[in-house]
Amino acid sequence: MSSVARFPRDSAPFRKRAEKLLTTQDRGGGPVTEVQALRLLHELQIHQIELEMQNTELMETRERLATLLTEFTDLYNFAPVGYLTLDAGGIIRRANLMAATLLRVDRGRLSGRSLPRLLDPGSRKQFSEFLAAHFSGKGPGTCELALAPGAGAAWIRLEATFSASDQEGQVALIDISETREAHAFLKNHQEQLERLVSERTRDLEVRNTEYADLYNRAPCGYHSLDALGTILAINDTMLRMVGYTREEVVGRMNIRDLLDEVSCERFRVEFPAFLEAGFVRDVETNLKRRDGSVFPALVSADAKLDATGKLLCTLSTVVDNTLRKEAELKRRASHEELERQVLERTRLVRRLAVETTVAEERERRAIAHDLHDDLGQLLHMISHQLDMLGRTETSTERQPLLAQMKATLAKASRSVRSLTTQLSPPVLETLGLVSALLWLGEEMEQTYGLRVEIVDDGSPKPLSPNLSTFLFRAARELLINVAKHSGGKTAVLSAAIKERRLVIQVDDKGQGIEDLDLILRRTKGFGLRSIRERLLQLGGELSARRNPGDGWTVTLSLPVEAEDAREAP
């Protein structure tokens, strides 16, 4: 707040009286009396005090003005808006700190610079017109300009106050770069939105066409009814079902006109319940064609309601049930046939289970017999030989006993390997089916004197452990049959993948199998019969044929997908 100096109202009269008094003294008006001198002195002292008071007030006013000037200067210099003082030629006379920041020019070098040279060339003409119009008093109050590259801001807005009588004008600079970018972004976004709206409109038009096409060409019939059953809409599929045109049906026919007598009565009873529930599913009904023929159909419907719960229309689908009815009859016949086959198969499986149980029990007794009569006796002999070895005193006597023990241990080892072969060799779990078959060939030669050649096509045979065990036991059973019944001394065992099937063949050079059916009817041991039944469960087969020369070929074949052998024996 500014202060105004206050002066005494009677200071001027005192000055005039003093001047008059001095003039009188100078003119020789006579000496001043003491009383006059004292009065004059008194007046001068009062005047002096008044002058001192006035001086004090002037000093205080000056300090307040200095403070206000400092505040104004700070406000001017540190204002968040740039301020410039320009002359009529656009030369900068004064500038604050923000103006220097926006223009990116040192403030001390701004004075005397031409503002147009700090603008982008494309904005200089606009500024010149703006400046000329303002100094003529006819220009707009604002102007947006682009600054030259390298300035602190990309775009500024000028807010100026000029008049035709002024030699200088005051200009405010405001950074509008972000605003311009926002406007540009919004404009671009608006253009994108307009483009998207246009594209979406085209898409909606296309989809409406597609939906209309889908509605009319649907594989099932569609129709809509009002609360009285009048047909409001119907698609082409249902029109073809009943043989009418859309003009004959929509708004002119009631759904009862397309129902036979029984279905019409059912509709009369159940339609109110449908309106209350809001939907029905797969209701069997009979529809009438234009020619009077009747066909079965399945109807599903939903009620479309307004906000008050009043029915607007029904949305119904109709499926021609003729083929389904025929298929149902065929399915029933097929189901009865399947049940017959299942019963027959169940009897076969039960018989096979009994045979398998008997075979397993026989195998257990055979293994127990081998353990007792063979391996047990060998272990007893070893124990006896150890006792004799303990009673010998010289090395000469020990040598024959050690030789006998070595031979006995070899027999025991062969016995253990034989039992392992009957069950499942370790090589089957570690190296797979092909390696187990190679090991089986060596074992057959040592045990039965049958020399077996193993032939593998080299293709991968990833099998489950149970299926590998089953195929190994099946190959072993075939080779044992060759050794016991063919009379030959050689055989060929081959494994290959052919047309997505695993094929295992055993060829012998002996007299072969006289009667395959007779062999398959045997129940002793693992048996070819058990092999064939298990193969049938896996979708495979067992076959035998006589070779053009001598011998027979027995073939096991099953799909490679049949790897789930969890039920394998």
- Distance separating the two termini: 112 Å
Question: Order of strands across the widest beta sheet?
Answer: 2-1-5-4-3
Q: Main beta sheet, described?
A: 5 strands, antiparallel
Number of helices, where a helix is a run of at least 4 consecutive DSSP H or I residues: 16
Q: Mean pLDDT, as a whole number?
A: 80
Q: Given the helix and strand composition, which structural class is it?
A: alpha+beta
Number of strands: 15
Helix share of residues? 55-70%
* Poorly predicted tracts of residues: 1-9, 562-569
The radius of gyration computed from the alpha-carbon positions, rounded to a whole number of angstroms, is 60 Å
Percentage of residues in DSSP E strands: 15-25%
Shape annotation? elongated
Task: Write structural notes for this entry.
It contains 16 helices and 15 strands. It is elongated, with a radius of gyration of 60 Å. A five-stranded antiparallel β-sheet has the order 2-1-5-4-3, sandwiched between helices. A five-stranded antiparallel β-sheet has the order 7-6-10-9-8. With 569 residues, the chain is of the alpha+beta class.
Topology summary:
Layout: H1 11-26, H2 34-77, E1 82-87, E2 92-95, H3 97-103, H4 107-110, H5 121-135, E3 142-146, E4 155-161, E5 168-175, H6 177-217, E6 221-225, E7 231-234, H7 236-242, H8 246-249, H9 261-277, E8 279-288, E9 294-305, E10 311-320, H10 322-391, H11 395-423, H12 426-431, H13 433-448, E11 451-456, H14 465-486, E12 490-498, E13 501-508, H15 516-520, H16 528-537, E14 541-546, E15 552-559
Parallel strand pairs: 11-12
Antiparallel strand pairs: 1-2, 1-5, 3-4, 4-5, 6-7, 6-10, 8-9, 9-10, 12-13, 13-15, 14-15
Helix pairs in contact: 10-11, 13-14
